Amino acid sequence: MKRYHVTTFGCQMNEHDSERLKGMLESLGYAESQDRETADVILFNTCSIREAADNRFVAHLGVARRVKRERPDVVVGVGGCWAQSVKEDVFRQFPFVDVAFGPGQVHKLAEFLTSDSITAQGFFEFEGFTGRLPMHRAREHQAWMQISVGCNLRCSYCIVPSTRGREVSRPLEELIVEAQRLAADGVREVTLLGQNVNSYGRDLRPERRAFSELLTAIDAVPGIDRIRYTSPHPKDMREDVVRAHAELPALCEHIHLPLQSGSSRILKAMRRTYDRERFLDRVALIREHVPDCALTTDIIVGFPGESDRDFAQTLEVVEEVGFDGAFTFVFSPRRGTEAAGITDGVVAHETKVERMERLVEAVQRRAAERAQRFVGRTLDVLVEGPSRTDPSRLRGRTRHNKVVNFAGLARPGEIVPVQITTATSQTLAGDLPLVARAAV
Ligand code: SAH
Ligand code: SF4
Ligand code: F3S
Fold it and tell me: Which domain holds residue 384?
């Protein structure tokens, strides 16, 4: 039997795409190999969001080059956003690559592998959803659902619109059937994926659909106990979606709402289409309807032109909102983006580093403070498996998306009540109450 090996970089959408890639290969009769040395097909699902992502992948490719030298029959394939961003140039930069494909052409890999082609080939059209390919799920009780791909916005720093194309939504009926199938297969939690999930459905014809309609429809699927989504855009965060969090039993009390900057001037240069007031207004709306909602965010420091004052405004928003967590990034100029061409006001490296340190301190301090509200409460935890730091304990997640390490007996996939005893900025710790422990 032939074997494949896939290495995945980048976001959850890429993780999802890799699950489908694996499913497709398995339907062709390939089996997964644990290492590259024994694989007949070596694949990389790449990301290009920041420069560090590119570099990480290039280092891995060196291993593939060596394997290919030793075993020339091995097929080396490069898919994903980096491949899409360089297209045919893949073959010039890395002559040992046999096949390259963008995120919209994963299905073409099957064509390539089943053809007699001996020449290198690249596939870079935007067509087809990976969500329609067979699936090989990494987690038994949790699943990704690709509800849309692509992005119609043009944030000036971002490479994604050029790597994932224009936004296209999958039909609502198709997604309900998928959720039903997942539930029948033991899945309890789904995470809806899209570059801009809350603009879902506006492109659908004959009937436009709203993201909140989709949430309501999936909430009604028996067996799906938890719904998450990522990422929504603040400009499209409307009251119907916020209300859905209060009203739909399965929709979790967590929203990842990317801020990027707390300065309206920088947000404008980023072309984010909202300002600081609008963002804070969205936070107020969320807290009004779902007071206990966890809020996480993405923040970029060192965007060209960011002054001390602009950065101070970002810190102010972090202090004011009190995010439950944040991903923080140093601005990285990406090829072909508007911001990469800005030469005025480039922020010095030391300034970026210093701002990042201050930002991380504020984010973690506020997250740790916020997490104290869980101590003493009993929260529902979806068990994922043994704790990563102490295998005698279990690990799971609350509806707020907080990782909990706890003592007790429970099986992966169970939702159990856990008494929270301590909290840090990142994780919670607790115990299964004795009554619940006796029941399992
Ligand atoms: N579609 C999502 C973002 C996807 S990219 C959204 O609009 O929120 C994930 C995060 O990477 C972004 O939110 C941003 O904070 C960061 N990012 C994207 N491009 C970047 C760049 N060129 N430099 C630094 N960070 C970047
Ligand atoms: Fe990139 Fe902006 Fe689209 Fe997000 S919304 S994928 S940051 S262009
Ligand atoms: Fe990276 Fe593409 Fe995701 S650039 S972050 S893999 S959409």
Answer: 375-439
Q: Which two tokens stand for residue 335?
A: 């090829």
Using the mean position of ligand 3's atoms as its centre, give its distance from the Cα of residue 277 in Å.
28
In a domain, 334, yes or no: no
**Domain boundary at 123, 139, 166, which?**
123
CA dist 261 and 286 (Å) reads 19
pLDDT digits (tens, 9 = 90+) for 183-240: 999 999 999 999 999 999 999 999 999 999 999 999 999 999 999 999 999 999 999 9
Q: pTM for the full model?
A: 0.96
The whole-angstrom separation of Cα 400 and Cα 380 is: 10
How many residues appear in the chain?
Answer: 440
Collapse the DSSP code of 301 into the 3-class scheme (helix H, G, I; strand E, B; otherwise coil) and give the result.
strand
258 lines ligand 1 (CB under 6 A): yes
Among 74, 89, 123, residue at a domain's last position: 123
Report how far residue 95's alpha carbon sits from residue 86's, in angstroms, rounded to the nearest whole number: 14
Distance of CA 126 to the CA centre of its chain: 20
Separation of alpha carbons 103 and 131, rounded Å: 11
Ligand 2: residue of 81, 156, 160 to mutate (most ligand atoms within 8 A of CB) is 160
Rounded distance between C-alpha atoms, residue 253 and residue 191, angstroms: 13
Does ligand 1 come within 6 angstroms of the Cβ of 47?
no
Ligand 1, from 151, 198, 300: best to mutate by most atoms within 8 Å of Cβ?
300
